[in-house]
Amino acid sequence: MNWLLKLLITTVLVVVIAHFLPGISVDSFTTALIVAVVLGLLNVFVKPILVFLTIPATIITLGLFLLVINAVIILLGDYFVDGFAVSGFLSALLFSVILSIAQSFLNKLLIEEK
After folding, report:
1. I need a labelling partner for 39 at 20 to 30 A (CA). Which of 30, 81, 103, 109 fits?
2. Can you tell me whether residue 80 is helix, strand or coil?
3. What is each CA distance from 104 to 19, 31, 114, in whole angstroms?
4. Average pLDDT over residues 46-66
């Protein structure tokens, strides 16, 4: 049940952030739901591979390179989902930072830990 609430939180955040952030557009709530699912799948399957392959860069930058990996995940989501558009790397980077902070805050606020 928690994963469904997390998916709904991410969907709403994608819609809200896309509304306020220039360079990001989402056609509909259904598209935002698909974006949330695709981003979740990319974070589970692709992100660990990218993190492993970029360990030296991550160590040298003291972990800041993980922000670049998050932006790449957003750009991959743009590639896979029609109706979700990201205008460039900087927009993806800003979107990923805002999304991560908002998800962290809302998940802590709304989801009970057992």
Report:
1. 109
2. helix
3. 20, 22, 17
4. 97
